[in-house]
Amino acid sequence: MKETKKTLKSHKMKAIRSNLIGYSFILPNLIGYAIFVFIPVIFSFVLSVMKWDGSRTPMEFVGLSNFVQIFNDRIFVQSFFHTIQYALLTVLPTLVLALLLAVLLNHKLKGIAVFRTALYFPYIASIVAVGAVWNMLFQPDFGPINEFLRFIGISKPPRWVVDVKWAMVAISIVSVWKYMGYYMIVYLAALQGISGSLYEAAGIDGANGFQKLRYITIPMLTPTTFFVLIMLTIQCFKVFDLVYVMTGGGPGNATKTLVNYIYEKAFTSWEFGPASAGALVLFSVVLVVTLIQFAGEKKWSKDLM
Amino acid sequence: MKLKRVLAMMLAAGMVCTSLTACGGSKTAETSAADSTEKTETTKSDEKATSTGEKKVLSVTTWDYDTSPTFQTVVDAYMAKHPDVEINVIDTSADEYNNSLGISLSAAQPDPDVIWVKDMGSMLQMADKKQLLPLDDFMKKDNFDLSIYNGAAEQLQYNDATYGLPYRSDWYILYYNKDLFDAAGVPYPSNDMTWDEYYDLAAKMTSGEGSAKVYGGHNHTWQALVSNWAVQDGKHTVVEKDYSFLKPWYEQAVALQDNGYIQDFSTLKTANIHYSSVFKNQQCAMMPMGSWFIATMIQSQASDETSFNWGIARIPHPADTEAGYTVGALTPVGISAYTDEPDLSWDFVKFATSEEAANILAEQGVFTGIQTEESLKTIASAQFFPEGDSNVEALTYTHYIFDRPLDPKITEIKTVLEEVHEMIMIKQYTVDQGIEELNKRVAEIKGW
Prior knowledge:
By secondary structure, chain A is mainly α. Chain A has helices spanning 2-47, 65-71, 74-104, 112-124, 127-137, 144-151, 167-192, 196-204, 209-220, 222-237, 241-246, 258-267, 272-304, and strands spanning 50-51, 60-61.
């Protein structure tokens, strides 16, 4: 009895110790995470019910009035819908193009790596440079895009970033171009995971290329597609940099998104309360999307087992 | 199992959090910094004393330090006069200046000590946040005489306190390209011209097609280049309940653009074209711009970047006023409330706004808060200043109207003004729609 108790205890000690060693390995990252992410996030929760201008003047508790204020602010509501508009314009095209490119580039061809790299490159390019260059391409009067459109017979091409109706489309086009390479890689990885025997069997049954894509590739990629969809949606809600560089939220406020609104409230008006309240709204949206993602993940991991 | 679920939840929270750092994170980083300043302040000043020996270090914030002689001149002059003081310049690009300054002040660090204020709106914001040291005590102690600024210093007072002294004073004048006028055989713009006459002259001076086109005038993308003329008579400001007074000025600006007498707003905006390149590349015959551009042109001519003949005239005036009304703004210099060198900072501010500095700056073509006949003469006799008495007369004015009022909400209102300006100039709004939007949104901001 005594013996077993002792071994049990030493087992426990061993476990604790190995756990501690494990924790010590993740500690550096955890500390960084706590200081730069976790504490600030908690702080922005606090700020959302405070009135504060970012100076040393003490904060003042104002309850939910920051939320009331932003929901009554037409500009906030508009920014919210602009964000949704941007997500709608960006998510699906990126997803479809990433999938198509992945399928096209999933062959053993000479020089395929060059194409893959070329398509991935926009993802790692500096967003400021990318935005500036695309702005020139979109230049309404002598930009190459409109020159081309006029060449193919469109006499009145859109004025892109200086047109309220087209500015968001222009930003979306750049986003799609920039991010499809990344998701293409995600899809490529998933494609490697599809067993070749499925295609062989389908080939024997006389399925053509399109049928293979429709009945094997796409269904087998569903979990990946779901993942990409969720990631893209979250990413779209967080959009800021591209808008800031390309239009600055203009013309007027036609492309002002949630984060642009938050940024302006915080760093132009120095109203951290409403800005944090806006951030919390964004947080809730992203949280909901993430929870959906987790539910989905669970479902597919069960299905696969 | 349970642990796993908890871990998953934590991860979920983590993912969401990470996704939010872009907006939530940066904000709070400053606060934690602010909390810790109390502790670091003492250690930091100790460090300063030991590491630099007896030399005292003063840090000042500036924008575009390398490209404009405005700050360099006075910083160098002060260091030459006080060899025991080292000035540490914290420079930011003009566009980012207010943001970056605001963030660094939130940290409540002992640096910077001296702050050059980019516009009056940001001075009010900083004063409201108690980030600027009121200068009144220093002034009382030194029996400082404000009258040398000719009333400009009083304009900077806010809530009965002085937060800054006028360092620079700028107002709008009309720049023109003499060579283009000579080639067209058109007389130069006069010092007494209405905006309607300016319009006709711009029409006359527009020529050429495509990339060789020379525009009669040039309006940079700032909304101030329309609203300034609307407030030039001193009867309105840009914070009003009813903005219909802007209507004729927007109509004229849109007409200039529609007729091709000035470059298209959207082109300037999308290609991010700076006004100085338009004038320096001789793409426009006339350009209304602030007097700060004189120093830029002098520098440009001196360095052989440009070599055409240019001139200046008084800014055109509305039909209901006489010549000599102009619109301008002051550039104040103040002291951070968190400075660890208040006395040295005050000494620097005093020097920067003194008559002595004014004369040094005048040699560079910079207009200061102190305007004397002598400084005017100095500027006019600078080597690359355009020749002719009319150019000297162009620097005089009878009425100086501030481009925007001292309103604590001015920065926010300015955002709205810029947005609506853009919408009108790219023709997404009619002038009337723009005015309606302005009335509505400014009323929301002001709580009217």
